[in-house]
Amino acid sequence: MKTRHIIFCFIALFVMSSCDDMFEPAIENNRQLEDMTEESAYAHGLLIYAYGRLPYARSTQTDVATDDAVTNLTTSAYLNMATGSWASDNNPVSQWNACKDGIQYVNLFLSIVDKVKWAPSAASKQQMFIDRLKGEALGLRALFYYYLLMAHGGYADDGVLYGVPLLTTPEDGGSDFNQPRATFASCIKQCFDDCDQAMELLPVDYADIESNSEIPEKYLELGANPSGYNLVFGKKSKNLMSGKIAEAIKAQVALLAASPAFRDQSGVTSYEAARLAANVLKRIGGLNGFDATGNIWYKNKSKLEPSASEMPEILWRADRVKDATQEAENFPPSLYGDGRVNPSQNLVDAFPMRSGLPITDANSGYDPQNPYAKRDPRLEDNVIYNGMIFRKVDIITGNYPNSKSESTDNLTNISTSTRTGYYLKKLLRDDVSPTASGTELTQQHIYPRIRYTEMFLAYAEAANDAWGPKADPNGVGFSAYDVIKAIRTRAGLATNEIGMPLPEGDVYLEECANDQTRMTELIRNERRIELCFENKRFWDLRRWKMPLNEAVKGMKIERDKKTNTLSYTVFVVEPRDYDSSYQWYGPIPKSEILKWSKLKQNKGWK
Protein backbone atom coordinates (compact mmCIF):
# COMPACT_ATOMS: atom_id res chain seq x y z
CA MET A 1 0.00 0.00 0.00
CA LYS A 2 1.53 3.22 -1.19
CA THR A 3 0.26 5.32 1.69
CA ARG A 4 2.29 3.39 4.27
CA HIS A 5 5.38 5.22 3.03
CA ILE A 6 3.92 8.73 3.08
CA ILE A 7 4.84 9.58 6.64
CA PHE A 8 8.43 8.48 6.15
CA CYS A 9 8.76 10.32 2.84
CA PHE A 10 7.27 13.45 4.38
CA ILE A 11 9.70 13.46 7.28
CA ALA A 12 12.56 12.96 4.84
CA LEU A 13 11.61 16.17 3.06
CA PHE A 14 12.40 18.15 6.18
CA VAL A 15 15.64 16.49 7.16
CA MET A 16 18.39 19.07 7.53
CA SER A 17 16.79 22.39 6.74
CA SER A 18 20.25 23.81 7.52
CA CYS A 19 23.49 21.94 7.98
CA ASP A 20 27.19 22.33 7.41
CA ASP A 21 27.71 19.07 5.59
CA MET A 22 24.90 17.89 3.30
CA PHE A 23 26.42 14.44 3.08
CA GLU A 24 26.65 13.92 6.83
CA PRO A 25 23.65 15.72 8.30
CA ALA A 26 23.54 16.19 12.03
CA ILE A 27 21.14 13.67 13.49
CA GLU A 28 19.64 16.25 15.82
CA ASN A 29 18.20 18.10 12.82
CA ASN A 30 16.00 15.19 11.73
CA ARG A 31 12.39 16.20 12.26
CA GLN A 32 9.79 13.70 13.41
CA LEU A 33 5.99 13.98 13.30
CA GLU A 34 5.79 15.08 16.92
CA ASP A 35 8.23 17.93 16.20
CA MET A 36 5.63 19.53 13.97
CA THR A 37 3.62 20.61 16.98
CA GLU A 38 6.32 23.21 17.58
CA GLU A 39 6.69 24.25 13.94
CA SER A 40 3.35 25.16 12.41
CA ALA A 41 4.73 25.70 8.90
CA TYR A 42 5.83 22.07 8.69
CA ALA A 43 2.55 20.82 10.15
CA HIS A 44 0.64 22.89 7.60
CA GLY A 45 2.69 21.16 4.92
CA LEU A 46 0.69 17.99 5.50
CA LEU A 47 -2.51 19.79 4.58
CA ILE A 48 -0.86 21.42 1.58
CA TYR A 49 0.20 17.97 0.40
CA ALA A 50 -3.43 16.86 0.68
CA TYR A 51 -4.52 19.80 -1.50
CA GLY A 52 -1.88 18.66 -3.96
CA ARG A 53 -3.82 15.40 -4.42
CA LEU A 54 -7.07 17.09 -5.47
CA PRO A 55 -8.57 14.93 -8.25
CA TYR A 56 -9.57 17.73 -10.63
CA ALA A 57 -8.22 17.82 -14.19
CA ARG A 58 -7.30 21.05 -15.96
CA SER A 59 -8.19 19.65 -19.38
CA THR A 60 -10.74 17.47 -21.14
CA GLN A 61 -9.75 13.87 -20.47
CA THR A 62 -12.40 11.22 -19.81
CA ASP A 63 -14.87 12.58 -22.38
CA VAL A 64 -12.89 10.88 -25.16
CA ALA A 65 -13.77 7.54 -23.54
CA THR A 66 -17.51 8.27 -23.90
CA ASP A 67 -19.98 8.75 -26.74
CA ASP A 68 -19.23 12.51 -26.67
CA ALA A 69 -15.78 12.48 -28.27
CA VAL A 70 -12.72 10.65 -29.51
CA THR A 71 -9.07 11.66 -29.57
CA ASN A 72 -6.60 11.61 -32.45
CA LEU A 73 -3.80 10.75 -30.03
CA THR A 74 -3.27 7.07 -30.82
CA THR A 75 -1.33 6.46 -27.60
CA SER A 76 -4.10 7.81 -25.37
CA ALA A 77 -4.82 5.60 -22.37
CA TYR A 78 -8.47 6.69 -22.55
CA LEU A 79 -8.73 5.60 -26.19
CA ASN A 80 -7.26 2.22 -25.30
CA MET A 81 -9.62 1.86 -22.36
CA ALA A 82 -12.68 2.66 -24.47
CA THR A 83 -11.72 0.18 -27.17
CA GLY A 84 -11.30 -2.87 -24.97
CA SER A 85 -8.21 -2.48 -22.79
CA TRP A 86 -9.87 -1.44 -19.53
CA ALA A 87 -8.65 -3.81 -16.83
CA SER A 88 -7.98 -3.86 -13.11
CA ASP A 89 -4.25 -3.52 -13.88
CA ASN A 90 -4.76 -1.00 -16.68
CA ASN A 91 -7.10 1.67 -15.39
CA PRO A 92 -6.48 5.31 -16.39
CA VAL A 93 -9.49 6.48 -14.37
CA SER A 94 -8.29 4.93 -11.12
CA GLN A 95 -8.39 7.24 -8.12
CA TRP A 96 -6.93 4.68 -5.72
CA ASN A 97 -3.40 5.95 -5.15
CA ALA A 98 -3.86 9.72 -5.33
CA CYS A 99 -7.02 9.86 -3.21
CA LYS A 100 -5.76 7.36 -0.65
CA ASP A 101 -2.55 9.39 -0.38
CA GLY A 102 -4.67 12.48 0.17
CA ILE A 103 -6.61 10.72 2.94
CA GLN A 104 -3.38 9.65 4.63
CA TYR A 105 -2.10 13.23 4.63
CA VAL A 106 -5.43 14.45 6.01
CA ASN A 107 -5.47 11.81 8.74
CA LEU A 108 -1.89 12.63 9.72
CA PHE A 109 -2.80 16.28 9.90
CA LEU A 110 -5.92 15.66 11.97
CA SER A 111 -3.87 13.62 14.44
CA ILE A 112 -1.75 16.67 15.33
CA VAL A 113 -3.82 19.76 14.46
CA ASP A 114 -5.03 20.31 18.04
CA LYS A 115 -1.47 20.14 19.39
CA VAL A 116 0.26 22.50 16.96
CA LYS A 117 1.20 25.97 18.14
CA TRP A 118 -0.54 27.95 15.42
CA ALA A 119 -0.74 31.21 17.36
CA PRO A 120 0.35 30.45 20.94
CA SER A 121 0.30 34.10 22.03
CA ALA A 122 -3.42 34.56 21.26
CA ALA A 123 -6.02 32.04 22.40
CA SER A 124 -8.62 33.27 19.91
CA LYS A 125 -6.29 32.98 16.91
CA GLN A 126 -5.07 29.58 18.09
CA GLN A 127 -8.64 28.24 18.21
CA MET A 128 -9.65 29.86 14.94
CA PHE A 129 -6.67 28.32 13.16
CA ILE A 130 -7.45 24.92 14.64
CA ASP A 131 -11.08 25.15 13.55
CA ARG A 132 -10.34 26.36 10.05
CA LEU A 133 -7.58 23.89 9.32
CA LYS A 134 -9.49 20.98 10.82
CA GLY A 135 -12.54 21.96 8.76
CA GLU A 136 -10.47 22.11 5.60
CA ALA A 137 -9.03 18.66 6.28
CA LEU A 138 -12.44 17.09 6.92
CA GLY A 139 -13.88 18.61 3.76
CA LEU A 140 -10.94 17.30 1.75
CA ARG A 141 -11.33 13.83 3.20
CA ALA A 142 -14.98 13.74 2.14
CA LEU A 143 -13.94 14.82 -1.36
CA PHE A 144 -11.30 12.10 -1.63
CA TYR A 145 -13.78 9.44 -0.55
CA TYR A 146 -16.32 10.77 -3.05
CA TYR A 147 -13.91 10.25 -5.93
CA LEU A 148 -12.87 6.85 -4.62
CA LEU A 149 -16.53 5.79 -4.52
CA MET A 150 -17.16 6.98 -8.08
CA ALA A 151 -14.14 5.12 -9.38
CA HIS A 152 -14.10 1.98 -7.22
CA GLY A 153 -17.47 1.51 -5.53
CA GLY A 154 -19.44 -1.50 -6.74
CA TYR A 155 -21.02 -4.87 -6.15
CA ALA A 156 -18.86 -7.85 -5.27
CA ASP A 157 -19.77 -11.47 -6.01
CA ASP A 158 -21.55 -11.72 -2.66
CA GLY A 159 -24.16 -9.18 -3.81
CA VAL A 160 -23.05 -6.47 -1.38
CA LEU A 161 -22.42 -2.91 -2.59
CA TYR A 162 -18.99 -1.97 -1.28
CA GLY A 163 -17.03 1.23 -1.14
CA VAL A 164 -13.37 1.28 -0.13
CA PRO A 165 -11.49 0.63 3.13
CA LEU A 166 -12.62 3.32 5.53
CA LEU A 167 -9.64 4.95 7.25
CA THR A 168 -10.06 7.86 9.64
CA THR A 169 -6.75 7.53 11.49
CA PRO A 170 -3.27 7.65 9.98
CA GLU A 171 -1.45 4.48 9.05
CA ASP A 172 2.11 3.89 10.19
CA GLY A 173 4.68 1.12 10.17
CA GLY A 174 2.74 -0.86 12.75
CA SER A 175 -0.67 -0.63 11.04
CA ASP A 176 -2.61 -3.59 9.72
CA PHE A 177 -2.81 -2.77 6.02
CA ASN A 178 -4.98 -5.77 5.21
CA GLN A 179 -8.27 -3.93 5.61
CA PRO A 180 -11.62 -4.97 4.08
CA ARG A 181 -13.77 -2.63 2.04
CA ALA A 182 -16.47 -0.90 4.02
CA THR A 183 -19.99 -0.97 2.64
CA PHE A 184 -20.89 1.79 0.22
CA ALA A 185 -23.48 3.05 2.70
CA SER A 186 -20.86 3.31 5.47
CA CYS A 187 -18.56 5.30 3.20
CA ILE A 188 -21.40 7.64 2.25
CA LYS A 189 -22.20 8.18 5.92
CA GLN A 190 -18.56 9.04 6.61
CA CYS A 191 -18.59 11.56 3.75
CA PHE A 192 -21.73 13.14 5.16
CA ASP A 193 -20.29 13.27 8.68
CA ASP A 194 -17.06 14.86 7.44
CA CYS A 195 -18.96 17.45 5.43
CA ASP A 196 -21.22 18.26 8.37
CA GLN A 197 -18.26 18.76 10.70
CA ALA A 198 -16.48 20.88 8.08
CA MET A 199 -19.57 23.09 7.73
CA GLU A 200 -19.68 23.58 11.51
CA LEU A 201 -16.04 24.63 11.68
CA LEU A 202 -15.72 26.74 8.53
CA PRO A 203 -17.32 30.00 7.42
CA VAL A 204 -19.70 29.73 4.49
CA ASP A 205 -17.34 31.99 2.54
CA TYR A 206 -14.04 33.64 3.38
CA ALA A 207 -14.60 37.37 3.69
CA ASP A 208 -13.23 40.27 5.72
CA ILE A 209 -15.36 41.71 8.50
CA GLU A 210 -15.35 45.16 10.13
CA SER A 211 -16.99 44.81 13.55
CA ASN A 212 -17.13 42.54 16.59
CA SER A 213 -20.81 41.90 15.88
CA GLU A 214 -19.78 39.74 12.92
CA ILE A 215 -17.52 37.48 14.98
CA PRO A 216 -19.00 34.18 16.23
CA GLU A 217 -19.61 34.21 19.98
CA LYS A 218 -17.21 31.36 20.71
CA TYR A 219 -14.31 33.42 19.36
CA LEU A 220 -15.44 36.65 20.99
CA GLU A 221 -15.28 34.91 24.34
CA LEU A 222 -11.62 34.14 23.65
CA GLY A 223 -10.88 37.78 22.85
CA ALA A 224 -11.08 37.78 19.07
CA ASN A 225 -11.19 41.06 17.15
CA PRO A 226 -11.85 41.81 13.45
CA SER A 227 -8.15 41.94 12.62
CA GLY A 228 -7.47 38.52 14.06
CA TYR A 229 -10.62 37.05 12.54
CA ASN A 230 -9.67 38.37 9.09
CA LEU A 231 -6.21 36.88 9.44
CA VAL A 232 -7.75 33.40 9.72
CA PHE A 233 -11.12 33.60 7.97
CA GLY A 234 -10.70 36.65 5.73
CA LYS A 235 -10.75 37.00 1.98
CA LYS A 236 -7.09 36.00 1.62
CA SER A 237 -8.20 32.42 2.27
CA LYS A 238 -10.55 32.31 -0.71
CA ASN A 239 -10.49 29.07 -2.73
CA LEU A 240 -9.55 27.02 0.30
CA MET A 241 -12.13 24.51 1.47
CA SER A 242 -15.06 26.49 2.89
CA GLY A 243 -18.43 25.67 4.42
CA LYS A 244 -20.13 26.35 1.09
CA ILE A 245 -17.78 24.01 -0.76
CA ALA A 246 -18.24 21.25 1.83
CA GLU A 247 -22.01 21.67 1.46
CA ALA A 248 -21.71 21.30 -2.33
CA ILE A 249 -19.53 18.19 -1.96
CA LYS A 250 -22.17 16.65 0.32
CA ALA A 251 -24.79 17.33 -2.38
CA GLN A 252 -22.57 15.68 -5.02
CA VAL A 253 -22.08 12.64 -2.80
CA ALA A 254 -25.84 12.40 -2.26
CA LEU A 255 -26.60 12.55 -5.99
CA LEU A 256 -24.11 9.75 -6.64
CA ALA A 257 -25.59 7.62 -3.86
CA ALA A 258 -29.17 8.20 -5.05
CA SER A 259 -28.35 7.30 -8.67
CA PRO A 260 -29.65 4.08 -10.24
CA ALA A 261 -26.30 2.30 -9.98
CA PHE A 262 -26.03 2.76 -6.21
CA ARG A 263 -29.41 3.63 -4.72
CA ASP A 264 -30.45 0.08 -3.77
CA GLN A 265 -27.86 -0.18 -1.01
CA SER A 266 -26.55 3.36 -0.47
CA GLY A 267 -29.12 4.44 2.10
CA VAL A 268 -29.69 7.73 0.25
CA THR A 269 -32.87 8.68 -1.60
CA SER A 270 -33.44 11.17 -4.39
CA TYR A 271 -35.55 13.12 -1.90
CA GLU A 272 -32.47 13.65 0.29
CA ALA A 273 -30.25 14.41 -2.71
CA ALA A 274 -32.69 17.08 -3.89
CA ARG A 275 -32.86 18.61 -0.42
CA LEU A 276 -29.07 18.82 -0.13
CA ALA A 277 -28.66 20.37 -3.59
CA ALA A 278 -31.39 22.87 -2.71
CA ASN A 279 -29.46 23.88 0.42
CA VAL A 280 -26.53 24.92 -1.79
CA LEU A 281 -28.75 26.85 -4.18
CA LYS A 282 -30.63 28.67 -1.44
CA ARG A 283 -27.39 30.47 -0.56
CA ILE A 284 -27.52 32.32 -3.88
CA GLY A 285 -31.26 32.92 -3.76
CA GLY A 286 -32.19 29.93 -5.89
CA LEU A 287 -32.97 30.90 -9.46
CA ASN A 288 -32.43 34.56 -8.54
CA GLY A 289 -28.74 33.68 -8.41
CA PHE A 290 -28.73 31.87 -11.75
CA ASP A 291 -25.91 33.34 -13.85
CA ALA A 292 -27.21 34.55 -17.21
CA THR A 293 -23.82 33.89 -18.82
CA GLY A 294 -22.79 30.90 -16.73
CA ASN A 295 -22.61 28.51 -19.66
CA ILE A 296 -19.86 30.54 -21.36
CA TRP A 297 -17.78 31.68 -18.37
CA TYR A 298 -14.59 30.82 -20.28
CA LYS A 299 -15.41 33.53 -22.85
CA ASN A 300 -15.79 36.27 -20.25
CA LYS A 301 -12.24 37.53 -20.73
CA SER A 302 -12.39 40.49 -18.36
CA LYS A 303 -13.51 38.19 -15.54
CA LEU A 304 -10.61 35.84 -16.17
CA GLU A 305 -8.01 38.42 -15.18
CA PRO A 306 -6.47 38.23 -11.68
CA SER A 307 -7.85 41.65 -10.75
CA ALA A 308 -11.42 40.66 -11.62
CA SER A 309 -14.14 39.85 -9.12
CA GLU A 310 -15.33 36.27 -8.78
CA MET A 311 -17.70 34.87 -11.37
CA PRO A 312 -21.20 34.16 -10.02
CA GLU A 313 -21.23 30.86 -11.96
CA ILE A 314 -18.23 29.36 -10.20
CA LEU A 315 -18.66 27.92 -6.73
CA TRP A 316 -15.08 26.64 -6.44
CA ARG A 317 -12.14 26.92 -8.79
CA ALA A 318 -8.46 26.24 -9.11
CA ASP A 319 -6.00 29.13 -9.15
CA ARG A 320 -5.88 31.16 -12.33
CA VAL A 321 -3.24 29.97 -14.78
CA LYS A 322 -1.71 31.94 -17.62
CA ASP A 323 -1.01 29.39 -20.33
CA ALA A 324 -1.94 28.12 -23.77
CA THR A 325 -2.01 24.39 -23.06
CA GLN A 326 -5.64 23.66 -23.93
CA GLU A 327 -5.44 25.74 -27.09
CA ALA A 328 -2.20 24.16 -28.29
CA GLU A 329 -3.68 20.73 -27.74
CA ASN A 330 -7.09 21.38 -29.28
CA PHE A 331 -6.99 24.16 -31.88
CA PRO A 332 -7.35 22.86 -35.45
CA PRO A 333 -4.00 22.23 -37.16
CA SER A 334 -4.44 25.27 -39.42
CA LEU A 335 -4.12 27.28 -36.19
CA TYR A 336 -1.09 25.25 -35.08
CA GLY A 337 -3.06 23.07 -32.70
CA ASP A 338 -3.01 19.31 -32.31
CA GLY A 339 -6.78 18.89 -32.64
CA ARG A 340 -6.76 16.30 -29.84
CA VAL A 341 -10.37 16.23 -28.63
CA ASN A 342 -12.84 15.59 -31.46
CA PRO A 343 -16.52 16.00 -30.52
CA SER A 344 -18.75 13.23 -31.82
CA GLN A 345 -21.74 13.30 -34.12
CA ASN A 346 -23.56 11.66 -31.21
CA LEU A 347 -23.04 14.79 -29.11
CA VAL A 348 -23.82 17.15 -31.99
CA ASP A 349 -27.12 15.32 -32.48
CA ALA A 350 -27.94 15.85 -28.79
CA PHE A 351 -28.19 19.61 -29.35
CA PRO A 352 -31.80 20.44 -30.27
CA MET A 353 -33.02 22.92 -32.83
CA ARG A 354 -33.28 26.55 -31.80
CA SER A 355 -37.01 25.94 -31.33
CA GLY A 356 -36.14 23.52 -28.53
CA LEU A 357 -37.35 20.47 -30.43
CA PRO A 358 -34.90 17.57 -30.78
CA ILE A 359 -33.66 16.97 -34.32
CA THR A 360 -35.49 13.62 -34.30
CA ASP A 361 -38.85 15.37 -34.01
CA ALA A 362 -40.71 15.43 -37.33
CA ASN A 363 -41.77 19.05 -36.67
CA SER A 364 -38.30 20.33 -35.79
CA GLY A 365 -37.34 21.47 -39.28
CA TYR A 366 -33.99 19.72 -39.10
CA ASP A 367 -32.40 19.35 -42.53
CA PRO A 368 -29.81 16.52 -42.83
CA GLN A 369 -28.30 18.34 -45.81
CA ASN A 370 -27.96 21.58 -43.86
CA PRO A 371 -27.40 20.11 -40.40
CA TYR A 372 -26.04 23.15 -38.55
CA ALA A 373 -28.78 25.61 -39.51
CA LYS A 374 -31.19 26.89 -36.85
CA ARG A 375 -29.58 24.80 -34.13
CA ASP A 376 -29.29 25.35 -30.39
CA PRO A 377 -26.82 28.29 -29.99
CA ARG A 378 -24.84 26.18 -27.53
CA LEU A 379 -23.66 24.00 -30.43
CA GLU A 380 -21.70 26.92 -31.84
CA ASP A 381 -20.30 27.72 -28.39
CA ASN A 382 -19.00 24.21 -27.79
CA VAL A 383 -18.08 22.71 -31.17
CA ILE A 384 -16.21 23.87 -34.26
CA TYR A 385 -18.01 22.42 -37.29
CA ASN A 386 -17.47 22.62 -41.04
CA GLY A 387 -17.48 26.15 -42.43
CA MET A 388 -17.27 27.91 -39.08
CA ILE A 389 -15.07 30.99 -38.95
CA PHE A 390 -12.78 30.72 -35.95
CA ARG A 391 -10.00 33.24 -35.34
CA LYS A 392 -10.73 34.63 -38.83
CA VAL A 393 -9.97 31.23 -40.37
CA ASP A 394 -12.51 29.26 -42.39
CA ILE A 395 -12.35 25.83 -40.76
CA ILE A 396 -13.09 23.20 -43.41
CA THR A 397 -13.44 19.71 -42.00
CA GLY A 398 -15.01 18.24 -45.15
CA ASN A 399 -13.05 16.29 -47.73
CA TYR A 400 -12.52 19.21 -50.07
CA PRO A 401 -10.14 22.21 -50.16
CA ASN A 402 -11.10 25.55 -48.70
CA SER A 403 -11.10 28.73 -50.76
CA LYS A 404 -7.37 29.28 -50.31
CA SER A 405 -5.62 25.92 -50.21
CA GLU A 406 -5.86 22.28 -49.24
CA SER A 407 -6.80 22.38 -45.59
CA THR A 408 -4.97 20.50 -42.87
CA ASP A 409 -8.27 20.66 -40.98
CA ASN A 410 -9.91 18.17 -43.35
CA LEU A 411 -11.23 14.91 -41.92
CA THR A 412 -8.28 12.60 -41.10
CA ASN A 413 -6.01 14.54 -43.45
CA ILE A 414 -3.00 14.48 -41.14
CA SER A 415 -2.29 13.02 -37.70
CA THR A 416 -3.56 16.16 -35.97
CA SER A 417 -6.72 16.48 -38.06
CA THR A 418 -10.16 15.66 -36.72
CA ARG A 419 -11.37 12.07 -36.83
CA THR A 420 -15.05 13.03 -36.50
CA GLY A 421 -15.42 16.16 -38.61
CA TYR A 422 -15.47 18.38 -35.51
CA TYR A 423 -13.02 20.24 -33.28
CA LEU A 424 -13.36 21.32 -29.66
CA LYS A 425 -14.31 24.94 -29.01
CA LYS A 426 -15.53 24.92 -25.41
CA LEU A 427 -13.02 26.05 -22.76
CA LEU A 428 -10.70 27.58 -25.38
CA ARG A 429 -9.77 31.25 -25.60
CA ASP A 430 -9.75 32.59 -29.13
CA ASP A 431 -7.10 35.17 -28.21
CA VAL A 432 -4.47 32.54 -27.44
CA SER A 433 -2.04 31.98 -30.32
CA PRO A 434 -0.05 28.78 -30.68
CA THR A 435 2.49 29.20 -33.49
CA ALA A 436 4.48 26.99 -35.81
CA SER A 437 7.70 27.93 -34.01
CA GLY A 438 6.33 26.73 -30.68
CA THR A 439 6.19 30.20 -29.15
CA GLU A 440 2.76 31.09 -27.86
CA LEU A 441 0.68 34.03 -26.79
CA THR A 442 -0.68 32.89 -23.45
CA GLN A 443 -3.75 34.15 -21.61
CA GLN A 444 -5.41 33.73 -18.23
CA HIS A 445 -7.58 30.67 -17.67
CA ILE A 446 -9.90 29.55 -14.90
CA TYR A 447 -10.57 25.88 -14.28
CA PRO A 448 -13.77 25.40 -12.27
CA ARG A 449 -13.98 22.56 -9.77
CA ILE A 450 -17.68 23.02 -9.03
CA ARG A 451 -20.09 25.20 -11.01
CA TYR A 452 -23.52 26.34 -9.89
CA THR A 453 -25.01 25.02 -13.12
CA GLU A 454 -23.91 21.56 -12.01
CA MET A 455 -25.69 22.11 -8.69
CA PHE A 456 -28.88 23.27 -10.46
CA LEU A 457 -28.79 20.20 -12.67
CA ALA A 458 -28.19 17.96 -9.64
CA TYR A 459 -31.27 19.43 -8.00
CA ALA A 460 -33.38 19.02 -11.15
CA GLU A 461 -32.33 15.40 -11.55
CA ALA A 462 -32.99 14.43 -7.95
CA ALA A 463 -36.18 16.49 -7.58
CA ASN A 464 -37.74 15.07 -10.72
CA ASP A 465 -36.86 11.56 -9.59
CA ALA A 466 -38.20 12.17 -6.09
CA TRP A 467 -41.51 13.90 -6.80
CA GLY A 468 -41.85 14.77 -10.48
CA PRO A 469 -41.19 17.69 -12.83
CA LYS A 470 -43.23 20.51 -11.33
CA ALA A 471 -43.67 19.61 -7.67
CA ASP A 472 -41.99 21.57 -4.87
CA PRO A 473 -43.11 19.85 -1.66
CA ASN A 474 -40.38 21.41 0.47
CA GLY A 475 -41.16 24.98 -0.56
CA VAL A 476 -37.72 25.50 -2.09
CA GLY A 477 -39.22 28.00 -4.50
CA PHE A 478 -38.42 26.20 -7.73
CA SER A 479 -38.96 22.80 -9.31
CA ALA A 480 -37.03 20.57 -11.70
CA TYR A 481 -39.08 22.11 -14.50
CA ASP A 482 -38.17 25.64 -13.39
CA VAL A 483 -34.47 24.81 -13.45
CA ILE A 484 -34.53 23.28 -16.92
CA LYS A 485 -36.60 26.16 -18.21
CA ALA A 486 -34.00 28.62 -16.89
CA ILE A 487 -31.16 26.67 -18.48
CA ARG A 488 -32.88 26.43 -21.86
CA THR A 489 -33.93 30.07 -21.75
CA ARG A 490 -30.34 31.10 -21.04
CA ALA A 491 -29.25 29.00 -24.01
CA GLY A 492 -31.58 30.95 -26.30
CA LEU A 493 -34.00 28.10 -27.06
CA ALA A 494 -37.60 28.69 -28.15
CA THR A 495 -36.51 31.89 -29.90
CA ASN A 496 -36.21 32.93 -33.52
CA GLU A 497 -32.96 33.80 -35.28
CA ILE A 498 -32.87 37.31 -33.80
CA GLY A 499 -33.51 36.03 -30.29
CA MET A 500 -37.21 36.86 -29.95
CA PRO A 501 -39.36 34.32 -28.05
CA LEU A 502 -41.47 32.02 -30.19
CA PRO A 503 -45.25 32.59 -29.75
CA GLU A 504 -45.74 28.91 -28.91
CA GLY A 505 -42.96 28.93 -26.30
CA ASP A 506 -40.81 25.90 -25.49
CA VAL A 507 -43.19 23.22 -26.71
CA TYR A 508 -40.85 20.32 -26.07
CA LEU A 509 -40.17 21.34 -22.47
CA GLU A 510 -43.90 21.62 -21.79
CA GLU A 511 -44.49 18.15 -23.23
CA CYS A 512 -41.75 16.66 -21.04
CA ALA A 513 -43.10 18.45 -17.97
CA ASN A 514 -46.19 16.26 -18.16
CA ASP A 515 -44.22 13.01 -18.13
CA GLN A 516 -41.66 12.16 -15.45
CA THR A 517 -39.82 9.65 -17.66
CA ARG A 518 -39.47 12.09 -20.53
CA MET A 519 -38.38 14.79 -18.10
CA THR A 520 -35.64 12.46 -16.85
CA GLU A 521 -34.40 12.07 -20.42
CA LEU A 522 -34.49 15.83 -21.00
CA ILE A 523 -32.62 16.59 -17.76
CA ARG A 524 -29.93 14.08 -18.65
CA ASN A 525 -29.59 15.58 -22.11
CA GLU A 526 -29.34 19.10 -20.72
CA ARG A 527 -26.65 17.91 -18.32
CA ARG A 528 -24.81 16.31 -21.23
CA ILE A 529 -24.86 19.58 -23.18
CA GLU A 530 -24.16 21.98 -20.32
CA LEU A 531 -21.29 19.97 -18.80
CA CYS A 532 -19.77 18.52 -21.96
CA PHE A 533 -15.98 18.29 -22.00
CA GLU A 534 -15.80 18.86 -18.24
CA ASN A 535 -15.05 15.20 -17.41
CA LYS A 536 -18.57 14.44 -16.19
CA ARG A 537 -20.17 12.16 -18.77
CA PHE A 538 -17.93 9.14 -18.15
CA TRP A 539 -19.19 9.00 -14.57
CA ASP A 540 -22.75 10.02 -15.43
CA LEU A 541 -23.28 7.15 -17.88
CA ARG A 542 -22.20 4.68 -15.24
CA ARG A 543 -24.19 6.03 -12.32
CA TRP A 544 -27.27 6.14 -14.59
CA LYS A 545 -26.58 2.57 -15.76
CA MET A 546 -26.92 3.66 -19.37
CA PRO A 547 -25.51 1.71 -22.34
CA LEU A 548 -21.75 2.13 -22.65
CA ASN A 549 -21.16 0.64 -26.09
CA GLU A 550 -22.68 3.28 -28.33
CA ALA A 551 -20.33 3.56 -31.29
CA VAL A 552 -18.85 7.01 -31.75
CA LYS A 553 -19.93 8.59 -35.02
CA GLY A 554 -18.61 11.37 -37.20
CA MET A 555 -19.67 13.43 -40.20
CA LYS A 556 -18.10 13.03 -43.64
CA ILE A 557 -18.74 16.02 -45.90
CA GLU A 558 -18.01 16.03 -49.61
CA ARG A 559 -18.52 18.67 -52.30
CA ASP A 560 -19.73 18.07 -55.80
CA LYS A 561 -17.18 19.63 -58.14
CA LYS A 562 -19.80 20.61 -60.70
CA THR A 563 -22.55 22.02 -58.54
CA ASN A 564 -20.52 22.92 -55.41
CA THR A 565 -23.27 21.36 -53.30
CA LEU A 566 -22.29 19.58 -50.13
CA SER A 567 -23.36 16.09 -49.11
CA TYR A 568 -23.34 14.85 -45.53
CA THR A 569 -22.80 11.24 -44.47
CA VAL A 570 -22.71 9.97 -40.90
CA PHE A 571 -20.17 7.21 -40.33
CA VAL A 572 -18.78 5.14 -37.47
CA VAL A 573 -15.47 6.52 -36.22
CA GLU A 574 -14.76 4.26 -33.28
CA PRO A 575 -16.67 1.25 -31.96
CA ARG A 576 -16.66 1.04 -28.19
CA ASP A 577 -15.83 -2.11 -26.26
CA TYR A 578 -17.29 -1.90 -22.77
CA ASP A 579 -19.20 -4.60 -20.90
CA SER A 580 -22.31 -3.17 -19.24
CA SER A 581 -22.79 -6.38 -17.29
CA TYR A 582 -20.15 -5.17 -14.85
CA GLN A 583 -18.28 -2.08 -16.11
CA TRP A 584 -20.76 0.39 -14.66
CA TYR A 585 -18.53 -0.13 -11.63
CA GLY A 586 -14.77 0.37 -11.82
CA PRO A 587 -12.25 -2.15 -10.47
CA ILE A 588 -10.16 -2.30 -7.34
CA PRO A 589 -6.53 -2.24 -8.55
CA LYS A 590 -5.29 -5.75 -9.20
CA SER A 591 -2.06 -5.04 -7.34
CA GLU A 592 -4.07 -4.32 -4.19
CA ILE A 593 -6.20 -7.45 -4.56
CA LEU A 594 -3.04 -9.56 -4.87
CA LYS A 595 -1.51 -7.98 -1.77
CA TRP A 596 -4.43 -7.94 0.64
CA SER A 597 -6.63 -10.98 1.17
CA LYS A 598 -9.50 -9.04 2.79
CA LEU A 599 -10.10 -6.82 -0.24
CA LYS A 600 -12.99 -8.00 -2.39
CA GLN A 601 -12.95 -7.25 -6.10
CA ASN A 602 -16.01 -5.86 -7.87
CA LYS A 603 -18.00 -8.41 -9.80
CA GLY A 604 -16.69 -9.21 -13.28
CA TRP A 605 -13.19 -7.82 -12.80
CA LYS A 606 -10.18 -10.11 -12.50
The level-1 CATH class of the largest domain: Mainly Alpha
Strand segment count: 16
For the biggest sheet, the summary is: 2 strands, antiparallel
Total domain units: 3
Mean pLDDT: 93
CATH architecture of the largest domain: Alpha Horseshoe
> Which structural category do the helix and sheet elements fall into?
mainly alpha
Span from first to last CA? Answer: 19 Å
Give the % helix: 25-40%
- Overall 3D shape: globular
**Number of H/I helices:** 21
Structure report:
This protein has 606 residues and is mainly alpha-helical. The protein folds into three domains: 1-55 and 95-235 and 583-606, Serine Threonine Protein Phosphatase 5, Tetratricopeptide repeat (Alpha Horseshoe); 62-90 and 321-445 and 546-579, no CATH class; 262-318 and 456-528, no CATH class. Helix content is 37%, strand content 9%. The chain has helices spanning 6-13, 40-51, 77-85, 96-112, 123-152, 184-201, 217-220, 226-233, 243-257, 263-266, 270-282, 301-304, 325-330, 345-350, 377-382, 452-467, 480-491, 507-512, 516-530, 537-543, 590-595; strands spanning 69-71, 154-155, 161-162, 314-317, 321-323, 341-343, 383-384, 388-390, 393-395, 423-424, 433-434, 440-441, 443-445, 448-451, 552-559, 566-574. The protein has a two-stranded antiparallel ribbon. Helix 2 (40-51) runs parallel beside helix 5, helix 9 (243-257) packs across helix 16 (452-467) and helix 17 (480-491) crosses helix 19 (516-530). It is globular. The two termini are 19 Å apart. Mean pLDDT is 93; it is low at 7-29.
